[in-house]
Amino acid sequence: MRKVLPVLAILPLMTAGCISTATSIVKAPFQVAGKAVDWTTTSQEESDRNYGRKMRKQEAEEGKQRKELAKRCRKDPRRGECGQYQGYRAGE
């Protein structure tokens, strides 16, 4: 009995590494699956950021076109296109 007691005391220390390794192996497929889902889906924050970027780009394009129209109308105000702006409108 006296010989078994020290072995029982040391046993948890010897198997601690094995248990943590086994736990890591069991958790690995779930962690991989979670990463795959994160990569394939778009979060709401990411979607909002992309939409904002798209709208800013469209508004910049509209601004450029309006500026070009104004420049052409200053040069020749008799042109037929110098009334209401009929070009690209952001968000439409």
From TrEMBL:
<feature type="compositionally biased region" description="Basic and acidic residues">
    <location>
        <begin position="46"/>
        <end position="71"/>
    </location>
</feature>
<protein>
    <recommendedName>
        <fullName>Lipoprotein</fullName>
    </recommendedName>
</protein>
<keyword id="KW-0732">Signal</keyword>
<feature type="signal peptide">
    <location>
        <begin position="1"/>
        <end position="22"/>
    </location>
</feature>
<feature type="region of interest" description="Disordered">
    <location>
        <begin position="39"/>
        <end position="92"/>
    </location>
</feature>
